[in-house]
Amino acid sequence: MHASPPKHLGAKPRAMHIVLRDGGHLSASVFIAVGQALAPFLSSRKGGWLNVTRAQWEFEGIVHPHAVVRDDDIAWMRPVEPDVAVSMPGTVGESHDVDVLLEDRSCIRGRIVVAAGQRFSDYLAAGGRFLPLNQARAADTGEEYGDIAINFEHVKAVRHVFALESDTAGAAAKQAQWEKARKSIEARERETARRPTTDATPVAAAPPSPEEVRSPDRLAVHWLVRIARDAGLLPPDIAEVGPEVTLPELWRAIAGKNDVSDAEIAVLVSTMLRLPRADISRSQRTARDIVPAKVARRLGVIPLQADAASLTVATAEPGSLELEQQLRFVTRLQLKLEVAAPSEIAEALEYFYPAEATPPARATKAR
């Protein structure tokens, strides 16, 4: 007697195309709860077996009403129905084009969403047993697969397509330039440390003098502009951005002038100021509950983690005394700052506080 397929509350059979690790192909239906994404569903399976219905192996041509497939034997799976997603919608992060190298030496090219500044190894380690890959296609033939979920046991390497197809010499030169600037700043800091002074402020983040603040050219000594200059980047056109420029606009102006993203500027700022690069995807609800939404929006911060003594927040303005003072007043906790780009902050505010009708993150003049 054949065992009956299991009944799943709130689930219905969804058509799938399954590629097996031995090269075989299987068409079948899988019971998935409405609204559940494929990769998390497969990653959460226990027991090592996947129940399927209307299973048809391509070499056979016979439709089996019910079958079970060993999870480990699946190379990757593609939903046939367009309303079945492979990953949870609304994922916050940066989209990366990648090549996924498989154990059979084939290569699938597609797109993954990784939190800004997060290493691929950390993303893959935390991603479960199946990797969601969007807009997948065969790297050699260009055959399109659509959105798929790949078994990590079948994966040998994941590499960034950008590094293969972009101006790698230019990227390496830029990295070397930033590294040279960082070492130069460290050398100046060591020299300063040998002098009898109590000023421990990093050279790149030193605040302008009162005379400089009152100067018409105050943006020329803005902390972000000074960091860019120390790294060998071109400063923004002060006449073009104007004296009323906001901090996000200043980030964009520097990024645009140097043909880089504001996320790359965030990496530079964190390097120069020796602050961690924020991983906004690890923001904890317990931390967000400490900072009222209207305060987070007004100050442009994303609470990340909290304990009994301290609060870690992501910010695009790590040198702001006003920000530190107000957060300490509201939370009564010591602050730990991590660096994020303004665009990342804005996107995360909309994601974490969607019901808020308060104004967006402050657009004060860049100080």
Please explain how this structure is put together.
- With about 375 residues, this protein is an alpha+beta fold.
- It folds into four domains: about 10-80, SH3 type barrels (Roll); about 95-145 and about 155-165, no CATH class; about 170-275, no CATH class; about 280-350, GMP Synthetase, Chain A, domain 3.
- Helix content is about 30%, strand content about 25%.
- It contains 13 helices and 13 strands.
- The protein has helices at about 40-45, 120-125, 160-165, 170-195, 210-215, 225-230, 240, 245-255, 260-275, 285-290, 295-300, 320-330, 340-350; strands at about 10-20, 25-35, 50-55, 65-70, 75-80, 95-100, 105-115, 130-140, 145-150, 155-160, 300-305, 310-315, 335-340.
- It has a ten-stranded antiparallel beta sheet with strand order 4-3-2-1-5-9-8-7-6-10.
- Helix 12 (about 320-330) links the parallel strand 12 and strand 13 (about 335-340).
- The longest helix has 26 residues, at about 170-195.
- The chain is elongated, with a radius of gyration of 25 Å.
- The relative contact order is 0.09.
- The model is unreliable at about 1-10, about 165, about 195-215 and about 355-360 (pLDDT under 50).
Task: Quickly describe the structure.
This protein has 13 helices and 13 strands. It is an alpha+beta fold and 367 residues long.
Order of helices and strands: EEHEEEEEHEEEHHHHHHHHHEEHEH
Helix segment tally: 13
Please state the overall shape, judged from the principal axes of the Cα atoms: elongated
Which strand order do you get reading across the main beta sheet?
4-3-2-1-5-9-8-7-6-10
Could you describe the largest sheet, including whether it forms a barrel? 10 strands, antiparallel
From the helix content, strand content and strand pairing, which structural class follows?
A: alpha+beta
Low-pLDDT residue spans: 1-9, 163-167, 197-216, 356-362
Q: Which percent bin holds the helix content? A: 25-40%
What does the radius of gyration come to?
A: 25 Å
How many individual β-strands? 13
Strand content: 25-35%
Mean pLDDT: 79
How far apart, in Å, are the first and last alpha carbons? 76 Å
Number of separate structural domains: 4
